[in-house]
Amino acid sequence: MTKPAPQLQFGWEEWVSLPDLGLPAMKAKVDTGARTSALHATDIESFGRSDSPQVRFMVHPIPGREDLVIPCSAPIVDRREVTSSNGETEMRYVIGTTMSVGGQSWPIELTLTDRRGMASHMLLGRQALLDHITIIATERFFQPQLDYDVYHSKEMREAAPKRALRIAVLSREDNYSTRRLVEEGQARGHTVEVIDTTRCYIAINALMPEVHYDGKRLPRYDAVIPRVGASITSYGSAVVRQFETIGTFCVNGSEGITASRDKLHAHQILARHKIGMPTTAFAASPKDTGNLIGLVGGAPLIVKLLESTQGKGVVLAETKKAAESVISAFRGLKANFLVQHFVKEAAGEDIRCMVIGSKVVAAMKRSGAEGDFRSNLHQGGSASKVRISKEERETAQRAAKAFGLNMAGVDLLRSESGPKVLEVNSSPGLEGIETISGKNIAALLYEEIERRARPSPARRRKTATPGGAGF
Question: Which superkingdom does the taxonomy of this entry point to (predicted)?
Answer without folding.
Answer: Bacteria
